[in-house]
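Reopening this one. Same input as before:
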Amino acid sequence: MGMKVLGVGMVALLAVLAQPVLADEATTNMEILIQKVKADKKLLVAANMGLTDAEGKAFWPIYDAYQKDLQAINERLANAIKAYADALAAGPLSNETAKKLFNEAVAAEDSEVKLKQSYLPKLEKAVSSAKAVRYLQIETKIRAAVRYELAGAIPLVE
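Same output, byte for byte:
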């Protein structure tokens, strides 16, 4: 079963994320878009999970908790990207700054992997292992699309 097409809100967020990292005027619009994307993301997950009513009652509270925990990782990554943008605006990155920012980005990725690992048993209590893994695959695909856009917008270290 292929994943359904990303919603309009998700595409809009990806377009905003593709703008240069230093664009401060997008902050308010970004917050509005994030709320829209959260709703679209939930619809995308629902359309691809094939949950029964009983599974849905058990799954959605876990989904909401996962999103809340994921938000902390998103904020950590956003702070690292902002620090990188600020450092770039100040001039070429020192070796020390480059290494520090790299380590922070990798630590955020590590946190995300650990989060997925910690949620698999919780999800398996609500749905089958196959559906639990499907959900985590959907999350991974959505995040890969966002990361792809971010990668295109973030300049390489000089």
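So the earlier flakiness isn't reproducible anymore. For the record, The radius of gyration is 17 Å.
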